Amino acid sequence: MVVVGAPIAQATITCGQVVSGLAPCLTYLQSGGAVPVTCCDRVKGLVVLAQNTADKQTTCNCLKSTAASIQFNAENAESLPGKCGVNLPYKISTSTNCNIIKF
Asked: Which of 32, 36, 34 lies closest to 21, judged by CA?
C-alpha cells in the first residue's frame, strides 16, 4: 500500500528577514508620527515574501515576539499595515493567535 499525502509547507521566510524588514519602522511603532517610505516599502516586501500559510504564520509569530520585546505602541502597530496600504490577515499584536492564520 502506498500512501500519498500533501507535502507539509515549510516557511521560507525567517525571523531575521522580518526583524530587519521592520528596522525602518521602529520609530513609528514605538512613538508614532509619520511612517517613513522605507518602512512601507519593507512592509510591502514582507507581504510579498509571505505567500503560503507557513510563511504567514512565521511572519506573524516574529512580529508578535518582536512587538513584545521592543514594546511597540499597540495602536501604532495595528495601524501600520493600513498606513502602508497593505492588508494583513492578522493584527500586529502580542495577543494575536498566529496558528489560526491560513493562506
From this structure: 36
Give residue 9's pLDDT band: very low, low, confident or very high (50, 70, 90).
low
pTM for this structure?
Answer: 0.82
> Does some domain include residue 4?
no
The Cα–Cα gap between 103 and 39 comes to 24
The C-alpha cell that represents 61 in the structure block: 509569530
- The mean pLDDT value for 45-70 works out to 91
Phi, psi of 6 (to 5 degrees): -70, 140
Dmax (CA) of the chain: 62
Q: What is the dihedral of CA 61, 65, 70, 72, to 10 degrees?
A: 50
CATH number assigned to the domain comprising residue 91? 1.10.110.10
Which ranges in 1-103 belong to alpha helices (H)?
Answer: 15-22, 26-31, 37-49, 53-70, 74-83
